[in-house]
Amino acid sequence: MDRKRILIADDHPLFQEALKGVALEVFSGDAECVCTVNVRETLQALDNGRAFDLILLDLKLPGADGFSCLISVRSKVPSVPVVMVSSTDHVDIVRESFSYGAMGYLPKSSSQDVMKNAIRLVMSGSTYIPTEALGSFGVSHFVEKEVIPDGTSGAMSALTPRQLAVLDLLAEGKANKIIAYELDISEITVKAHVSAILRKLGVSNRLQAVIAAKNMKV
User: Fold this and answer.
1) Do 188 and 90 share a structural domain?
2) Residues near 163 by Cβ (< 8 Å), separated by ≥ 6?
3) Contact, 53 vs 26, CB < 8 A?
4) Taking Cα atoms as reference points, which of 96, 66, 100 lies closest to residue 82?
5) If pLDDT is split at 50, 70 and 90, which confidence band does 211 have?
6) What is the DSSP code (8-state) at residue 186?
7) Are residues 105 and 11 in the same domain?
8) Domain boundary at 131, 158, 185, which?
9) Residues 151 and 123 in one domain
10) Cβ neighbours of residue 178 under 8 Å, at least 6 residues apart?
11) Average pLDDT of the segment spanning 95-112
């Protein structure tokens, strides 16, 4: 199995080291972390050496104008998952990050456990949005061109206690493997519960299920 290669683009040394520590722990120490401190270095790193498996990108990286760096990164490596890191969790900023191709968004105030869960979730092919950014905002703040069907509120009562427990852990950004461990069930059972949750809520993915639950303050 190839060693994972992570690009950490952040100009704050302490936070850069924190992200490096989190990434190494997620990948059990078997990862190469390349750190950059501005847009120029970041884009150069994408052109040099072996491809990256994950990019952790500071929203306010020196040299960036708004989302210009994220846009440039996505144009160079459209298939590599990008997680934005920022000191803000304002709903409009989070939403716009996803509209430009981010797969995750991490406020810098997040705990290390939350950061690890977010990275695991993104690496599994899912999307991570910080719970605090969801708040009481409507679905339209995050999911354009996707609609949560009417009647979702009533469907929540159809969820079993175990499915509600799984949904709570999904809202914390935890991957199936972690959910299985915490609930002491198999990963296959977790997948079955997730499928049942999506079906009962009438939604098509984990993100929509979490947003629907937050809207109803479950």
Assistant:
1) no
2) 193, 196, 197, 200
3) no
4) 100
5) confident
6) -
7) yes
8) 131
9) no
10) 117, 120, 169
11) 87
End-of-domain residue from the set 131, 150, 165: 131
Report the side by side order of strands in the sheet with 54-58. Answer: 31-36, 4-9, 54-58, 82-86, 104-107
Rounded Cα distance, 163 and 180, in Å = 12
Domain that holds residue 158: 139-215
DSSP 42: H
Crossing angle (nearest 10°) for helices 187-201 and 206-215: 60
pLDDT exceeds 90 at position 177 = no
Q: Under a CB-based contact definition with an 8 Å cutoff, are residues 100 and 70 in contact? A: yes
Range of lowest pLDDT (77-81, 86-90, 109-113, 197-201)? 197-201
CATH of the domain at 196: 1.10.10.10
pTM of the model as a whole: 0.65
Same domain, 154 and 175: yes
Per-residue pLDDT at 186 exceeds 60: yes
Tell me, what's the pLDDT at 139? Answer: 45
Alpha-carbon distances, residue 61 vs 12, 36, 160 (angstroms)? 9, 9, 45
Q: Tell me the CATH number at 127.
A: 3.40.50.2300
User: Is there a single domain that holds both residue 66 and residue 27?
Assistant: yes
What's the rounded Cα separation, in Å, for the pair 177 and 105? Answer: 21
